[in-house]
Structures are given as structure tokens and as C-alpha cells.
Amino acid sequence: MRSMSVEQRWQDLASLLTIPPPPDQYQHYHQHPHAPHHPHNISHGAAAGYTPNYHVPPPVPEKHDAYGAAAPLEGAYKVESAHLQQHDGLYYQKARLDFAKKYQRWTASDWRKVLFSDESKFHLFGSDGRKYVRRPAGTRYNVRYQTPTVKHGGGNIKVWGAFSANGIGPLVEIHGNMDAVMYKEILQNHMLPFAKKNLPRGWVFQHDNDPKHASRHVKNFLQSQKVRLLDWPSQSPDLNPIEHLWQNLKLRVGTKNYANKTELWSHLQREWKELPEDRISQLIESMPRRCAAVIAAKGMTTKY
């Protein structure tokens, strides 16, 4: 049988694996940078200042997508994702710092003109949808220490709410997934009537940068109604005092379990209206301190 050279064997193997053949590691040489040029002495490579290219590994085959484009290595995704996250974090940090510096001279009187708003979610069974039972050890499957599950009407309720120094604003139940159209209707039918009736002249509306809040549909509506907006920074729940109001409300309604959403919604409305006025005043008056905390933290998250 005819003997095959090393190069021929590499080429045959490469054709079977459908990958490009590796560089010829046995015939290609690199000239040492300080060695004299010997174009006719390649056969005496080492003696003439040439070193074999043994350190070059075979090329790694690329992955291709459905359209034939070479896909980057998996590690490239991780590096790019890390760079993007770092860039986003610095962007949000700067935006928060700029906001705090812009409004650091606002007093509590200025913040009393702001209508704060947000969405939240309330579960039928406490804060996480689970119901806990106290029982002796070894009685997990005892019927006496088991509770029936809710087959109909389970889940949670999503709400939109607002408040200002003048008191608690409307609380609206959200049915399904809220989009820009539904959000605009909430602003038109609930937020605006409350603000025009209860807030002083020159009032300002606050909402975060959720995509539906920042949609063109909502922006056009607010502009048509000449509503002044607080230029709110993204990723800033610690700056919004309504987050603490949601916590207070969840503590008040989370002490019991509810048979269905109707019962939970009725209790939410009642407890929302009974939130103490002194708590509302405390939250409004905390805004100058929140801005100062963001400045001290150089835009990073604060204790609020």
C-alpha cells in the first residue's frame, strides 16, 4: 500500500470533518528576527536561524447560524454582556446623581406639589402567595394541620396608585397586563381629575421610566393636557416615597388570607384610604434627605 505523508493525512482527515486543515507544522518555518536571510537554506532551518512553527495549534472550527454567519464564541457573549451591564450601571448612577443635584435645593414645600405614582402587586396569601401553618414535628401530612387550597380566584391583584402631600390619591385595579393604552386611560380617568381637584397650581406629576409610561401614546396625552413631569431617573425606587407606602399597605393587608380577588380588592381599598396622614407627611418631607443620600453615595443605591 502506498505510504501517505503527514500533510496528506491531515488533508484527508480535514475533508471528513469538514473543517479547514491546520497549518503545515512540519514545512513552514519562522525566521528568527536577528538571523541572516537565507532563502536557499530552508532545509537547514534550525542551523540557518529558522525555527519550526510547532507552537501553532490547529484552528478551532467556528459555529455558524442558520444563515451561514459565523457566531462569536460563547465567552464573547459573557464579556460583552458584562461590559453592557457595567455601562448601564454607570449611566444609571450618573442619571441618579444628576437628578439629586438638580433638586437638592428643593424644600419640603416644593415636594408637596408633586403627585407620586407607581404600580404594585398584592397576593391572596401574604406577600409571596404561600400560606404557612404552625404544626408539631412529624405531623406534616396530618389532615388536622393542612389547609384547603383555592381552586378558583387565586393569584394576585395588580394596582396603580398615587399620593401627594394633600393625601391619598386614587387606587385603580389593573385587569390583565397593562399597556400604554390602558395606562393612558388611568391617567385620563383617575389621575387628572384627582390632581386638578386636590393639588395646588404648578403641580408636577411623577412616574418612572417604564416603557408604557415613556411611550409616545402617553407622552402625547400628557403634553396635550399640559402636565408637568418630573424628569425621573431610571432604577431609582429608593427615591420614590410611594415604595414605602406600598410596604405599609402590604403590612396592613398581609395579616390575613383572602378567599378570592374580590375580597382582597375590597380590603385593599379600605386600608388604602385609612393610611395615616402623618405617615404621608413623613414620606414627603423625606425627599430632601433622599436627594442628599444619593449625592453622598455618588449616585449609587441608598438606605431608602
From TrEMBL:
It comes from the Eukaryota. GO terms for molecular function: nucleic acid binding. Residues 114-262 form the Tc1-like transposase DDE domain. Residues 22-56 are annotated as: Disordered. Residues 29-41 have a biased composition (Basic residues). Pfam families: DDE_3. InterPro entries: RNaseH_sf, Tc1-like_DDE_dom, Transposase_5. This is Tc1-like transposase DDE domain-containing protein. It comes from Euphydryas editha. The lineage of its organism: Eukaryota, Metazoa, Ecdysozoa, Arthropoda, Hexapoda.
